[in-house]
């Protein structure tokens, strides 16, 4: 499975699309990432990040990284056309891993082992999109759970991809339990949940939504008790405490922060079990009380 070839740290390109940052600075960050020989994660909705990547790729065409990209569609042609349009913007011919952002009839068909399975298999075999991971949110977990239980994902989907950090575990409890029971592969998003836990807790407006500030209040004492020196290391060690984790993804515009992530993902040690148990208790409660009841895209 291609998911087994992921770099331990995957660079998220969200900040490359932030036009408040000088373009040359963003290109230099992209070039530094390319020099590290790591995967990247991108999407056409991240501002003009694809254009920044294209400029960086033209400067170093032998160092174009392997790419995970969000993809949408309910038919084979919709999936292919959307991917081709975005690859063309980057000057790239094929996609290493498609993050399936699907719902409705296509997701139902995949869960039932229907036509969607054939569509995805044909795309994989063509080599245009070499592999797939399935995006999960708390409010979309029902069909991915059904697909996993039915065996519909075998040979088609390499893993699930969702927010996974001490403040966010965006697979609903029943799906999470099944993922851990089967040890189905995971790619984690949003490594540090938007920033250091003390800033999320203490600085008004630093957390973009109130629930993150409230969760930071509960997690900060656990982080402090752990003795881990930095929030980045704590979050990376949290994610890698799950044996089925294949990579964790974090975004930054700063080259020094890229190196922080790289350092944290070298020789990762799992967090102590008592620390993991405390976080797990919080996350099971948050999932039932808040996450699965949230309006889509409000978290």
Question: Could you describe the 3D structure shown?
Answer:
The structure is a single chain. This protein has 299 residues and is α/β, with parallel strands linked by helices. The chain has one domain: NADP-dependent oxidoreductase domain (TIM Barrel). The chain contains twelve helices and nine strands. The chain has helices at 23-35, 49-59, 76-90, 104-111, 115-126, 142-150, 173-182, 197-202, 210-226, 231-239, 255-264, 273-289; strands at residues 9-12, 40-42, 67-71, 97-100, 132-135, 159-165, 168-169, 186-189, 245-251. An eight-stranded parallel β-barrel has the order 1-2-3-4-5-6-8-9. Strand 3 (67-71), helix 3 (76-90) and strand 4 form a beta-alpha-beta unit. Helix 1 crosses helix 2 (49-59) and helix 6 packs parallel to helix 7. The longest helix is centred in the C-terminal third of the chain and has 17 residues, at 210-226. The protein is globular. The model has no long low-confidence stretch (mean pLDDT 97).
Strand content: 5-15%
SS element count, helices: 12
The main pleated sheet reads as: 8 strands, parallel, barrel
Task: List the uncertain runs.
Answer: none
CATH homologous superfamily identity = NADP-dependent oxidoreductase domain
- Based on secondary structure, the structural category is alpha/beta
Q: CATH class, anyone?
A: Alpha Beta
Taken in chain order, the helices and strands follow as EHEHEHEHHEHEEHEHHHEHH
* CA-CA gap between termini: 31 Å
Count the E strands: 9
Within the CATH hierarchy, at the fold level, what is the topology?
TIM Barrel
Overall pLDDT: 97
Level of helix content?
A: 40-55%
User: Radius of gyration, rounded?
Assistant: 19 Å
Shape call: globular
Question: How many structural domains does the protein architecture include?
Answer: 1
Q: Taking strands numbered 1, 2, ... along the chain, how are they ordered across the largest sheet?
A: 1-2-3-4-5-6-8-9
CATH architecture: Alpha-Beta Barrel
